[in-house]
Specification:
Blueprint: H1 7-10, H2 38-44, H3 51-55, H4 57-60, H5 62-68, E1 76-80, H6 86-95, E2 100-106, H7 107-110, H8 120-123, E3 131-136, E4 147-153, H9 169-179, E5 180-191, H10 210-219, E6 223-228, E7 253-259
Parallel strand pairs: 1-2, 1-4, 2-3, 4-5
Antiparallel strand pairs: 5-7, 6-7
């Protein structure tokens, strides 16, 4: 069944004024109710999507996610650390033929693999002809054109892991800032760590303290633009790994949206 949210309640989320110099009002609450806009419903019910991806929709809430991220037809979007392309496929159909989706694969991960990145299957599929894969290191993040949205889900904590380096995070966030249009959005979703835990859970539990993310992203010049509550899970005590069978797929996740100021230098 296609997830349903209140279109009227979320309309303000889609009104993104790239030239605004003051933050827009906080996003309205996500509610059950009216059908999704036609273009988004079509993206979620796209017959090219794997059945396994559709089965994950209940837990990942892609309808609410796309609307909260302000993604809409014609936009240029980066899906950062895309994995197998769960969101890459959805974004491709959401932005439509006049939009573009860049699946940015970390060179730090690619160098460790003995195979093509999993998202290659998506970017080489004619059904997703508006997608393109980029493989490069995280501090060198960029795209061939200015972006409307940079999005990353469940992977920001990896920037601090020993597996990825760790990465020069300030340089990376500044690169995201430069890649966005003035007024563009940077959306970060990740597994919550306990308050005050800092980076102590990034390697062991694959979680991160939301306060760390906000502090690091704002340090790059972004304005905090709101948070979504639709992926919160009060049953998650945040004291085990996200892949533990007792919590996998049911973790508490924070959804943060940041905005590049409208008069920021390009």
């Amino acid at each position: 069944m296609t997830p349903r949210v209140s279109w009227l309640a979320l309309a303000a989320v889609l009104t993104l004024t790239a030239c605004a110099t003051t933050p827009p009002p906080p996003p309205p609450p996500v509610e059950a109710g009216a059908a999704l806009p036609t273009w988004l419903d079509a993206a979620l019910t796209d017959p090219s999507r794997p059945a396994a991806d559709m089965a994950r929709d209940v837990g990942r809430r892609p309808g609410e996610t796309v609307l909260f991220a302000g993604i809409k037809p014609g936009m240029k979007v980066a899906d950062l650390i895309p994995g197998a392309g769960y969101f890459t496929r959805i974004f491709s159909k959401a932005v439509g033929p006049r939009g573009r989706v860049y699946a940015y694969v970390p060179g730090e991960f690619a160098a460790q693999a003995n195979r093509d990145p999993a998202v290659t299957v998506v970017t080489q599929d004619p059904a997703y002809a508006n997608t393109r894969m980029i493989v490069d290191t995280m501090p060198r993040f960029s795209a061939p054109e200015k972006l409307d949205v940079v999005f990353t889900a469940q992977n920001y904590h990896d920037l601090h892991t020993t597996r990825m380096g760790p990465v020069d995070v300030p340089a990376f966030n500044r690169a995201v800032f430069r890649a966005l249009k003035p007024g563009g959005l940077y959306v970060v979703i990740d597994h919550s760590a306990q308050k005050g835990s800092g980076l102590s859970a990034v390697n062991s539990f694959h979680r991160i303290d939301p306060a760390v993310v906000r502090r690091e992203v704002e340090a790059a010049g972004f304005i905090f633009d709101g948070q979504g509550e639709f992926l919160r899970e009060p049953k998650d005590r945040m004291n085990v790994s996200v892949v533990d069978k007792t919590i996998r797929g049911e973790t508490d996740q924070f959804v943060y949206r940041f905005r590049k100021p409208g008069r920021a230098r390009r």
